[in-house]
Amino acid sequence: MPVDLEMSPFPATVNGQRQEIYARLAEAGTVHRITMPSGMPAWLVTGYDEVRMSLADPRLVKQGPLIPAAAALPPEIDRAMNSDLLHLDPPDHTRLRRLVSAAFTRRRVDDLAPRMTQVADQLLDAMGDAGRPGPVDLLDAYAFPLPMTVICELLGVPAEDAACFRGLSTTIVTGSLADQREWMTAATSLVAYIRSLVEIKRRNPADDLLSALIASRDGDDRLSQDELTSMVLLLLIAGHETTVNLIANSVFVLLQHPEQLAAVREDRGRLPAVVEEVLRLESPVQVATPRFTTEPVDLGGVRIPAGQMVFASVLAGGRDRVRFERSDSFDPGRSDLRHVAFGHGIHHCLGAPLARAEAVIALDRLLSRFPDLRMAVPVDELTWRPSVLMHGLFALPVLL
The pTM is what? Predict the structure, then answer.
């Protein structure tokens, strides 16, 4: 069914509004014809089964017509931004994932746990000093700097450069809701920075992921300059944007459910299930990056013609009332917590183990340090970021 812009979930900022829009769409079906904020026509997939199908169907590919902002980019910037795992199809995707996976090992994630705990404790100490006696923005003071510090250290990005990424990264993931000139400036600035950092690491390699990516090879095959730049850009943005929202959304949900919060305080072993349920209920990602139909595709009783742009909403899929009993309720004790927040199929998020580990550690240290944590404002005063891709708050004021 066609969707008026007034019903679009992407610009929604009022607390609960985005979920209400998706619920209204669900009443009409699982696949919807929409107009994107850029003015481009597209299809929005909202049913759980249909989302999984669209994410794994080889007839829906990543290479297709360019969005307006990307189409206006100089070709060299476009190649440097869109030559990574997220934007390519097999066989290029298969080759790149093999090369990158060799450097992005589970051992690196496990080895980071003590450092993640140390960073969390340092941030919480600073929060305690700043929060006497007034409120603290948990997102700004904790949810953002923790994953940003971790991904920068993992990649080998200097700590002093981290602050500049926040605004540029936010602009990029806002997508077509961002001012096009600002979006292009952010893209060009990030590419220029990463290219310069790659050259520094090429001359002076270190024990970090960026140096490992530069050296990564499979026989005579290795990452090209554009592939390397694009992959670092993806890891830097995806490595903190999603986890920032996951941490903040988890605290947001827990503080609204005191019984579940008390249960977690008594048994921290419940935290992994809490994180999985938050990923289902308040996914930090709203929709997956677009795919394009190579031929007509029947999905949810709707025929999508060839050459169409398709967005799969993992946020809506997690609230599918057919798939999940009491889908709008927060229940970490569910027998089946399968969600699609990290995607599905060959593009399943490579950094999922890192995001899960960071979220569990962040919540564990936060609840240990501030057992009386509570909201500083009514939930209806909270504002969500307008975004095509992300689902996250502008701020989360809390009292410690």
Answer: 0.92
